[in-house]
Amino acid sequence: MSRMGCLLWCCLLLPSLLLAQVDSTFFSVMSYNVENCFDTTDNPGINDEEYLPESDRHWTGKRYDIKLQHLSQVIISAGEWGQLALVGLCEVENDTVMKHLLGRTALRQLGYRYCMTHGQDKRGINVALLYQRDKFRLVGSEEIQIKLPMGERPTRNILHVWGEVESSDTLDVFVCHMPSRSGGELETRPKRLAAAKRLNHVLDSLRDLRRTSHFMIMGDFNDAPTDKSLSEVLQADACPDASAIDEEHLYNLFYFAEGSHKYRGEWNQLDHLIVNGRMLDPKNSFHLLQGSARVYKKSFLLTEDKTGGDKRPFRTYLGPKYEGGYSDHLPLIATFVLQIK
């Protein structure tokens, strides 16, 4: 073969060699409001008396252990023994609960680590993020406090965790449990708007800081996709066609979901998983696997709905009655593709 022919052959072969060096892997995440996962110890300064052995709910060590085993079962089932890189949890009380969850259940075999908030919520409710170190290299974490009008009791902090994924991209994860609707949706709306505005301010700062941002926002927002905190403040829209993606805009993967929570016989979508447009574009090294975002509705998580018909989440408590189930919410799951060079 002549020198010119050899050079031409190398030029034709080079793109194939470069393509062969690119590998792909999956990065699955879950968001789950686990319904009041308290330990059985009275913590001073926290209004946790409702979940103690001598309380009206009779929150005994046995019931607590069943709760932990149930949560472990959900995480393992959804991730098929370790495939969940990240798990966001709402309504976990403290570090004791997290250590028991990761140390006293089958999750101890999977090597998860965690970050969590230690906020000033009156009931001691916090959020946490489980992560697998081989899939998410933790760089840092912080708690984002929400300033409410004078006289309002403190609300839950937002957990912000950032790290590097296998594609070498930096991922900023936010786990949220926005102020509840207790007292009325309209009356409590300003609290959720304040929380959304605070989160939006942090996102704007990160857009200035990072050359390319990858935002993943998950949790219980206590608002539907069309409510103001999501539609006007965060402007988290439904996912568009590929040609209309704005890389810096936010998109709600569960905008049209059928519901992860049931109230008075009606399914509603208060749980959300939101990403920026960069994570929707299949041309990028870290992007959503199309069609993977779903509410995890396995049969063991559901029970008969005697008031609204059909099924409802199999809860730990239905009002004051112990049901021995999992949670009053269903988990959200999504899978992303990482291209590794």
Mean pLDDT: 92
**What form results from the Cα inertia axes?**
globular
Count of DSSP-assigned helices:
5
Tell me the β content: 25-35%
Q: Whole-number radius of gyration?
A: 22 Å
Contiguous uncertain segments of 5+ residues: 2-20
Largest sheet: 7 strands, mixed
Distance between the termini: 32 Å
User: What are the secondary-structure elements, in order, as H or E?
Assistant: HEHEHEEEEEHEHEEEEEEEEEEEE
DSSP strand count: 20
The SS-based structural class is: alpha+beta
Residue share in helix: 10-25%
Keywords summarizing the entry:
341 residues; alpha+beta; seven-stranded mixed sheet; 5 helices; disordered N terminus
What's the SSE blueprint?
Blueprint: H1 3-20, E1 23-37, H2 61-79, E2 84-92, H3 95-103, E3 112-116, E4 126-132, E5 136-144, E6 158-165, E7 170-177, H4 185-209, E8 215-220, H5 228-233, E9 237-238, E10 250-252, E11 261-263, E12 266-268, E13 271-276, E14 286-288, E15 294-295, E16 302-304, E17 311-313, E18 317-318, E19 321-322, E20 332-340
Parallel strand pairs: 1-2, 7-8, 9-10
Antiparallel strand pairs: 1-20, 2-4, 3-4, 5-6, 6-7, 8-13, 10-13, 11-12, 14-20, 15-20, 16-17, 18-19
Helix pairs in contact: 2-3
